[in-house]
Specification:
- The chain has 350 residues and is an all-alpha fold.
- It has one domain.
- The chain has 17 helices and no strands.
- α12 packs antiparallel against α13.
- The two termini are 41 Å apart.
- The mean pLDDT is 88.
Length: 350
C-alpha cells in the first residue's frame, strides 16, 4: 500500500511542478521509477524503495500542510476523467490477466527470469551468479517496474507480471483523455475500448507477452506525439516529458536510445526554418541524460562481467568485416523482397 500511495504522491508532485493534469503526469511515472530503481538494482538495494516511498509520502504531507491554499487547484488537476480512465484500465488489466502464467521461451530465458532475479536477490547479480547469463547486459528498466508491481501487490505471482506490463503499455495512451471534462466523461465508454484495441496494431501479442518491443513502440509513439505538439506549443511540460520518455526508452532496451534519436531527428526536421538551431540544441539537451543512463549501465556491466551472446556475435562480425573475411549470409538477396512482402501482405495477427 505504501508504494501505491507513494506513486500517487509522485503524480501529485508532477502535476504541481509541471502545471499539468494527471493524464500527463502518469506516463512520466515509469521513467521516474526506472531512474530510481535501476541504480538501486545495480547496488542490490531495491529494499530502499520502501524507505524512499515513506520519505516521499512524508514530504508530500508536509507540503500539503504548508500550502493548503493550493489544495483546490491540485485537486482539479488530479481528480479528472483521465484518473477514472486509469482506474478502469487497471481494473480491466487485473481481471484480464488473472491465472496467466509464463509461457514463452523469451520469458523463461529473460523477461520473467530477470524479474525473479530482482525479486529474490534484491537487484542485479554479477556474471558468476546471474540467472540470465546469455542476456547479462540487457537493461532491466521494465523489469524493475514489474518488480515494483509485485512488491505493491504483496508477493510473487506470475499473473501479476502480465498485469503490470499490460497497465504499463496502456499508461502511455492516457493523454487521449486530457480534453475530457466531467460533463463529457461519458465518452470514456467509447474511448476505453479504443485505448485497449489501439496497441494491438503494434503487436498481436501485446497482452500475452512480457517482451518489451511493444512497450518501446508505445514509448516511441508518445515521444513523437510530444515532439509534434511542440511545433505549436513549447512548454516545460513538453521538454521534461520528452526527456523522461527518452530515458525510459533507453532503460527499457538499448535500442531504445536509437529509436529516440530517430524521433528527435524527426523533430529537428519538422522544426520551422528559423528554429532549426534551437531545435538541434534542444535535441542534444534531451539526449544527454539518456546517453548518461546507457553509459552508466555499460560501466556497471563491464565491472561485473555482464554481456550477452548477441553482442559477442556482433563484435565477431565487425572484426571479420574489418579483416575483409566477412561474407553475406545465405539468402541475403531475397531478404528485402521477403521483408516487404511480409510487411505489406501478411496479416497483423497471423
Amino acid at each position: 500500500m505504501i508504494l501505491i500511495l507513494a506513486a500517487l504522491c509522485a503524480a501529485g508532485w508532477l502535476c504541481a511542478l509541471l502545471k499539468c493534469r494527471v493524464e500527463r503526469a502518469l506516463p512520466l511515472l515509469p521513467a521516474l521509477g526506472m531512474l530510481v530503481m535501476v541504480p538501486l538494482a545495480m547496488a542490490r538495494a531495491l529494499w530502499l524503495t520502501d524507505v524512499l516511498s515513506a520519505l516521499l509520502i512524508a514530504a508530500t504531507a508536509v507540503a500539503l500542510v504548508a500550502r493548503r491554499e493550493r489544495l483546490r487547484e491540485l485537486g482539479k488537476r488530479l481528480l479528472t476523467p483521465g484518473l477514472l480512465a486509469f482506474a478502469m484500465l487497471a481494473a480491466l488489466s487485473y481481471f484480464a490477466t488473472r491465472g496467466r502464467v509464463v509461457w514463452e521461451w523469451d520469458e523463461y530465458s529473460y523477461w520473467a527470469l530477470k524479474v525473479k532475479e530482482l525479486w529474490y536477490f534484491d537487484g542485479v547479480l554479477d556474471s558468476l551468479h546471474t540467472l540470465t547469463p546469455r542476456f547479462g547486459d540487457y537493461l532491466p528498466g521494465a523489469q524493475t517496474l514489474l518488480w515494483w508491481t509485485l512488491r505493491a501487490t504483496g508477493g510473487w505471482n506470475e499473473s501479476t507480471l502480465y498485469f503490470g506490463m499490460m497497465l504499463l503499455n496502456l499508461t502511455y495512451l492516457l493523454p487521449l483523455t486530457e480534453r475530457l471534462s466531467w460533463r463529457r466523461a461519458g465518452w470514456l465508454a467509447l474511448l476505453i475500448p479504443v485505448m485497449i484495441a489501439l496497441p494491438t496494431a503494434l503487436s498481436a501479442n501485446i497482452y500475452v507477452s512480457l517482451g518489451v518491443d511493444t512497450l518501446l513502440g508505445m514509448q516511441m509513439g508518445y515521444l513523437l506525439y510530444l515532439i509534434w505538439e511542440q511545433r505549436s506549443e513549447r512548454t516545460k511540460l513538453h521538454f521534461v516529458s520528452a526527456l523522461l520518455t527518452l530515458c525510459a526508452m533507453t532503460l527499457t532496451k538499448q535500442v531504445g536510445l536509437l529509436w529516440g534519436a530517430i524521433a528527435l531527428g524527426f523533430g529537428a526536421v519538422i522544426a520551422q526554418k528559423g528554429e532549426r538551431k534551437a531545435a538541434l540544441r534542444r535535441t542534444l539537451l534531451l539526449a544527454l541524460p539518456a546517453v548518461g543512463c546507457l553509459m552508466g549501465w555499460k560501466a556497471f556491466c563491464g565491472a561485473n562481467g555482464l554481456q550477452n551472446y548477441l553482442s559477442a556475435y556482433a563484435g565477431e562480425n565487425l572484426s571479420q568485416m574489418n579483416s575483409l573475411s566477412w561474407f553475406m549470409p545465405l539468402g541475403y538477396k531475397t531478404f528485402l523482397l521477403k521483408t516487404l512482402k511480409a510487411f505489406l501482405f501478411a496479416p497483423v495477427s497471423g
